[in-house]
Design a protein that fits this description.
Layout lengths: L2 H12 L5 E3 L1 E2 L2 H8 L6 E3 L1 H7 L16 H14 L4 E4 L8 H13 L4 E5 L1 E2 L2 E2 L2 H14 L4 E5 L10 H14 L4 E3 L6 H10 L5 E3 L8 H7 L4 E3 L3 H18 L12 H8 L8
Parallel strand pairs: 1-11, 2-3, 3-4, 4-5, 5-8, 8-9, 10-11
Antiparallel strand pairs: 6-7
């Protein structure tokens, strides 16, 4: 059995147990740092990868601003090679509208070492027609039967009074088409999240990091959430530190330096040792 297949098996088992937290890395260094903190799995973040390349998250119609499938999967491979943990890849909308392109993206993600990955049901600001969205998930499933497939639905990202009903309907249709987990970002409150977890007939992933959650992460698990990710929030926080460091330097201060991880700890971590004090 390949390392990827073993990781996929472990990742699938996580979705059948208690809820777990899956933080998002954007390069090999952040992957190893997060893995050292004892998480059971990590994910990639398209936002973090794009920002590290000096590009926006989702360039879409401007090739100069878009992170290509090749570039994103190269980073997925780098992250998967940096840790033995299962890696869930942010595969955006699969880099194509048609189901076969989505299937090819899944096959490439498996080759890159990903244990699982997300496929979105939106391109730009437009949700895919429901039937096509389901067909895309079915094609992804057929492309890699052991891959842990997460179907993301972005119904909460746009206007519409029936967003909750749509999210539940789409989530269950995606599960019937072969998805292993449903990811509905943007649920506005804990009551909505509780309803999603109850009415969607499979594991639900909730992304955190943009707004506080009343009761913290424990409240999400108590609401029935199986998996918690953080999207690009760690990457944005890291970039926030870079900007604060620049402001400190311009003002003649070195306040930012108090947030450093000691050089010795990082050297030990990245050389395969155990950082002092850990």
């Amino acid at each position: 059995m390949t390392a990827q297949a073993q990781a996929a098996r472990r990742f699938r088992a996580l979705h059948k147990g208690p809820g777990f937290i899956m933080p998002n890395a954007w390069d090999a260094g952040t992957a190893r740092l997060l893995a050292a903190e004892g998480f059971a799995a990590i994910a990639t973040t398209s936002a973090g990868v794009a920002f590290s390349l000096g590009k926006p998250d989702y360039g879409l119609d401007d090739a100069a601003l878009t992170v290509s499938r090749e570039a994103m999967l190269a980073r997925v491979a780098e992250i998967a090679a940096a840790t033995e943990l299962p890696v869930n890849a942010d595969l955006e909308a699969g880099w194509g509208d048609d189901p076969e392109t989505v299937a090819q993206t899944i096959r490439l993600a498996v080759a890159a070492g990903a244990a699982g990955g997300n496929i979105e049901d939106i391109r730009g600001e437009r949700l895919y027609d429901e039937a096509l969205a389901v067909e895309r998930i079915a094609a992804a499933r057929a492309a890699a039967p052991d891959f842990v497939l997460t179907a993301r639905t972005d119904v909460f990202q746009g206007p519409g009074e029936d967003a909750l009903a749509q999210a539940i309907r789409r989530g269950n249709l995606f599960l019937e088409a072969g998805a292993d987990c449903v990811f509905p970002p943007g649920a506005p409150d804990l009551a909505t999240i509780r309803t999603l977890a109850r009415e969607i007939a499979g594991p639900v992933n909730i992304v955190v990091g943009l707004t506080p959650i009343d009761g913290g992460l424990d409240a999400l698990f108590e609401a029935g959430v199986r998996r918690i990710s953080v999207g690009g929030s760690i990457a944005r926080a890291a970039l926030g530190l870079v900007r604060r460091a620049a402001a400190d330097l311009k003002a003649g201060r070195l306040d930012y330096a108090s947030d450093q991880i000691p050089q010795g700890e990082l050297n030990a971590l990245f050389s395969g040792g155990t950082p002092a004090g850990r």
